[in-house]
UniProtKB/TrEMBL annotation:
It is found in: Cell membrane. Part of the binding-protein-dependent transport system for molybdenum; probably responsible for the translocation of the substrate across the membrane. GO terms for cellular component: plasma membrane. Residues 65-266 form the ABC transmembrane type-1 domain. GO terms for molecular function: molybdate ion transmembrane transporter activity. Keywords: Cell membrane, Membrane, Molybdenum, Transmembrane, Transmembrane helix, Transport. It holds the Pfam family BPD_transp_1. It is a multi-pass membrane protein. Belongs to the binding-protein-dependent transport system permease family. CysTW subfamily. It comes from the Bacteria. Gene3D superfamilies: MetI-like (1.10.3720.10). The chain crosses the membrane at residues 21-45, 65-91, 103-125, 137-165, 194-212, 248-268. This is Molybdenum transport system permease.
Length: 276
């Protein structure tokens, strides 16, 4: 069998890259990989596999799982309603202070979640900037309620959606919207009939990412909504509580969240698991 002139240099280049990995880089790289994998392997090794069905079928687990799925889905829906227009505003328009607004949008990504919960209390608490008016005018109390869980999860998860959708919008060709405008479509009609179908995959990826982040939210939720079984106790809060009294139950609950995370990674494999 003869080799083509194109395949041989390509194979040689692959071999050359493998042989040329310097030891001072290879060793810390392997240590870093092991550092990321060992905790997950330990979780699988120490999992109570025999009692796992009993642990996962308890009423408390199903209640926490139901509440987690419900609140994470509601937070993702709310993020879609207000986050997609915000991403479009950042990607398609120019206004004074746009860079500052983008920095504010990304702030929850680096803000400690507990600080986010305190900020939510100061804004929507009974004595908060907006919460006092909601309580006195409409009798609406948001802290320590299921709605408070949704707000806390939206606060920490929506930036993931906005950043993802904004990147997709910047990559999309704006000439399609301009062509729709020349045919008489308003800017909102062009957004609804042209832009949304064009960026649908990016919106779906951002929604999955936001949903996963909302599902794993802990700090802002326990600060703003508390930890009440059946009302505000989500899976991460149940893991925290179980770790103090029943470590085996905490490991079982952690396995559920690990399985969800792997499922999300598999759903976004084209975005996160390819080199280009």
């Amino acid at each position: 069998m003869t080799e083509t002139l194109e395949s041989r240099p390509r194979r040689d280049r692959r071999r050359g890259r493998t042989r040329s990995v310097p030891i001072p880089l290879l060793v810390p790289a392997l240590v870093g990989l092991a550092f990321l994998l060992l905790p997950l392997i330990a979780l699988l090794v120490r999992a109570p596999w025999r009692s796992l069905p009993e642990q996962l079928t308890s009423v408390e687990v199903w209640e926490a799982l139901r509440l987690s799925l419900l609140c994470a889905t509601a937070a993702t829906g709310l993020s879609l309603v207000i986050g997609v227009p915000l991403a479009w505003l950042l990607a398609r328009t120019r206004f004074p202070g746009r860079g500052f607004v983008r920095a504010l949008v990304t702030l929850p990504l680096v803000l400690p979640p507990v600080v986010g919960g305190v900020a939510l209390l100061l804004a929507f608490g009974r004595n908060g900037v907006i919460g006092q008016w909601l309580d006195s005018w409409f009798g609406i109390t948001l802290p320590f309620t299921t709605t408070g869980v949704v707000l806390a999860e939206t606060f920490v998860a929506m930036p993931f959606l906005v950043i993802s959708v904004e990147g997709t919008l910047r990559a999309a060709d704006p000439r399609y919207e301009e062509a729709a405008g020349t045919l008489g479509a308003s800017r909102f009609t062009a957004f609804r009939r042209v832009t949304l179908p064009l960026i649908a995959p990016g919106i779906a990826a951002g929604a999955v990412l936001a949903w996963a982040r909302a599902l794993g939210e802990f700090g802002a939720t326990i600060t703003f909504a508390g930890n009440f079984p059946g009302r505000t106790q989500t899976m991460p809060l149940a893991v925290y509580l179980a770790l103090q009294n029943d470590p085996a139950a905490a490991i079982a609950l952690s396995l559920v969240l690990l399985a969800v995370s792997i499922a999300v990674l598999a759903a976004l494999r084209d975005r996160w698991m390819t080199a280009s």
